[in-house]
Structure formats: structure tokens, C-alpha cells
Amino acid sequence: MDFLQQLGLEQENKGVSTGSTWIDSKGAKLESFSPVDGKLIGTVISADKAAYDVSMEKALAAFKEWRMWPAPKRGEIVRQFGEALREKKEPLGKLVSYEMGKSLQEGLGEVQEMIDICDFAVGLSRQLYGLSMHSERPLHRMYEQWHPLGVVGIISAFNFPVAVWSWNTALAWICGDVCIWKPSEKTPLCGIACQKIIAEVFAKNNVPEGVSCLVQGGREIGEWLSNDTNIPLISATGSTRMGKAVSTAVAARLGRSILELGGNNAIIISQHADLDMSLIGAVFGAVGTAGQRCTSTRRLIIHESVYDTFKNKLINAYKQLSIGDPLDSKNHVGPLIDKDAVKLYLDSIEKCKQQGGNFVVEGGILEGAGYESGCYVKPCIAEVTNDLGIVQHETFAPILYLIKYKTIEEAIVLQNGVPQGLSSAIMTLNIRESELFLSQAGSDCGIANVNIGTSGAEIGGAFGGEKETGGGRESGSDAWKAYMRRQTNTINWSTNLPLAQGIKFHI
Ligand code: UN1
Description:
The protein is α/β, with parallel strands linked by helices. The protein has helices at 2-6, 49-66, 71-87, 89-100, 104-124, 163-175, 188-204, 219-227, 240-252, 275-287, 304-320, 339-354, 408-416, 431-438; strands at residues 12-14, 16-17, 29-33, 40-45, 132-133, 140-148, 151-155, 178-182, 212-215, 233-237, 256-260, 265-269, 297-303, 358-361, 380-383, 399-405, 420-421, 423-427, 447-450, 462-463, 466-467, 474-475, 484-492. The strands form 6 sheets. It has a 7-stranded mixed β-sheet with strand order 14-15-16-13-12-18-19, sandwiched between helices. It has a 6-stranded mixed β-sheet with strand order 2-9-8-7-10-11, sandwiched between helices. β18 (423-427), α14 (431-438) and β19 (447-450) form a beta-alpha-beta unit. Bound molecules: 2-aminohexanedioic acid (UN1). Belongs to the aldehyde dehydrogenase family.
């Protein structure tokens, strides 16, 4: 496993770092087992409270210095981070694939997202624009400026173990913030690898210790971060249950949060769709990353006139899928993250059957040579109605639900008829339908696509969703504004002190 050495990973790793310094801790030992072959890859020591406090102190001190660097100079550091990622793309992509289980193509794609967000952030570092306004008072000038916020806490999930961190850090750093990161306890080695890459770039450029902190561990670390009044902003990616706990704690201290939680994404397949194109979007969306993207396609809402044809195309396509070692490029589908995820997958299939779902492609665990980790499962397809309890729920696994519709209005109601609101798509060549879908009477999701599936969003757009998805936006567009505080400034260069709203006040 050359990639482990190339990334500087040890068999036993400290899990707390402020950059180049790795801090001793008496926290629990996290063991990272690969879902690919079930082998122990390495261990990481969790943060205890003392180590957490040391990192926070460093982060707070670093912020005082970092916020004074001109933003384009901070951008230059992020540019070098992007270069370092280009050099490490292969080993980091392999580690993502081996520790998380997604295909190597997708592991490399995830590192590509990191590189892309760095490029985006470099340009942005010269474009943190505020508006200027016309004052209602003579010889007054009014404008707004954006200042750094402070320490940004990042809680990320196992399914995008490196990219989500970089979407947050690349923006936060050019904005002048410092970051403290809790990676998923299921992918701790990805956290170590990223921290080592950035520490090298920072050390070369004399960036102060504390601009990038790592605090590995379980749920308690998330609680420390959420309750810590030193942290004005928490960006959390993961389950809706986790997001509710984080946002409640953060809101109780009137902090801010960016939440990127569950999705229950659907593609509407209209009678006007290009069905071959739709097939690629639907199958990649449903089985890519073994259905463990928050943007994975969970539901297909298919027009009754093409329902049987499309169902048969899907059944045929599923027969062609090869499931196995994700590092082997001939495989389409890798394992689920762990045996708990397999259990949830099996429970969901069971529930779906009990609730009346009809499986047209059966699921199940794969056994035998190559499947020793016990984490490989068969992507499956069930015919359902949208109101089933299980269909309303996000199961992080390759289970695809088929739902039939008659009118486009009905399809949109079905598409929106779930608690989550992340990604959505319509496959149609009919402009009236697609415009309706994109209108204010259409999809209620943060992402709405036409003739593209639900997953695989580009970093240039703002990423996130509505309802139980949490409302946060990360990555492109003007998502950077969430990482800064806005200040409105009014300057009087006259010889009088006129009051606003024409108020007269004489003394
Ligand atoms: C996630 O699953 O948490 O759109 C993020 C996509 C990726 C990001 C997914 N760019 O599928």
C-alpha cells in the first residue's frame, strides 16, 4: 500500500494537530478498518478535552495574525494547497477509495473537487466585494465590508471524507478564518492525510500554527465544538439527526451554522425524456458511491406511459453492474462503509417489503471471495408509493424506489413530497415541463437539474438544500459570505452632524 506511505500515514497516528504540531492525547483509539477488504489500515488517537483546549487556544491566537494577512496573500497559500493536492491526487484518491469504499474514479473525483475549490477560492480572494451605497445625508459616504469571522468548526461525514473539509477550509481561509476540523470517526486516516498535506504548505509559508486544526474523535467532539462560544460558525455535514443536535446547541448560544444534511433525491422521468440518457443518470445516481452520497438518487418518478419500458431498461442495466473492490476499475459498485450500514440497508429492505414495496431487483449481501469484509451489497430496486414510511426516509444505501405518475403537476407534488430538499432532476425534452419544474411552483430543492441526474454537483454552484437538508450553502456562488461578518460603515466628511431620517437634535 504505497499510498499510505506517500501520504505519511503511520500504523498509529495522533489525532490532534494544530498544523505541523501533533498533540498528545489520552482519548480513545479509533481503529480504521477498510470496507474494501476488512483489514485494519491504522489507528488514530481521539482528542481528549485537554488536547481540544490546546488546539482551540492555538486557533484563537492564529486568527489574530491570519486575519491581518491581505486576502490575496491568503489566496496564494490556497493556490499552493491546490498544487500540493495535484501532486498528491493519486495517493489521496486511493486512500479515499480504500478507507471509504467508493470507486477509485470517484475517489480521484473527490480530490478533483478539492483542487477545483482551491482554484475557485484563489480567484475569490480578490473578489470579497462589499457594496457601496448612497447616503441620504450630504457629504457622507456609506459602504459595507466583509470581515473574517474567527474560528470555523467543521464537522464532516464519511462519504466525502476529504472534499467537504476543503470546500469549507478553502473558503474560510481566504476569508481570513481559521478552521478546526472533526472528520468522521469512520474515515480518520483521510483526516490525517489532509492535515499533513496542508501542514507542509503552511510550514513553507510561515502560516501560523492553528490556522488548520484537527480534532479527531466521536460524538463528544461534535458536542464540544457545538457548545464552544469561541466558534462563531459551525459547518456540519451528515445526518438530519446530527444536524438537529448541532444546530440546537449552536442556536442556544446564538452562533451560526451551515447545515448540509440528508437528501431524498428524485429524478422525474417524463414521457418526453431521452430514455437512454436518463438511464445513465439514474443508475449512476442510485449506485454510485454505493448510494452513500447525500445527492444519491433514491426515487425515480416515472411517467406511466414509459414506466414499463424504463423499468426494464433499469433491470437490464442492474444485471450489468459489477460489484467488488472499488480500486479495481472494472467494478461499478464498491462496499458500504461498514457492517452497521449493511444492517440499515437490510432493515430498510425488510421495512419496504412490509410496507408493500415490490422488489423488481432483489437486494442482499454478497459473500465469498473478494467480499470478505461483509460490506458488499447488491443494489436493488423496489416499486413503491411515495407515502410509504421507508420512502420518506433517507437510507444511505443503493436502494432505488420507482413511483408512477400521470401528470407533470402530480410528479412535482411527489418530488416535493418528502421531508428533505437537497437535489432533484427532471429528464425531459419538453421546455414547458422543464421550465415548470424550475419555476417557483416546481422543485423545492436547493439543487434542480434538467437532463442531468441528482448527484455530481459542480463546486461552482452553491451546494445545499432546503427543509430537513438544513438550508446551508457551501462551495461556490456567494456561499463565502457565510464565512464572514458584514459591517456597514458610514463616514461623515461634512462640517455638520446631520442625523438620519431628518431628525433635528439641538443642544
Ligand atoms: C455529499 O454527498 O455530501 O454532488 C456531497 C455531489 C458531490 C457532493 C456530494 N459533488 O454528488
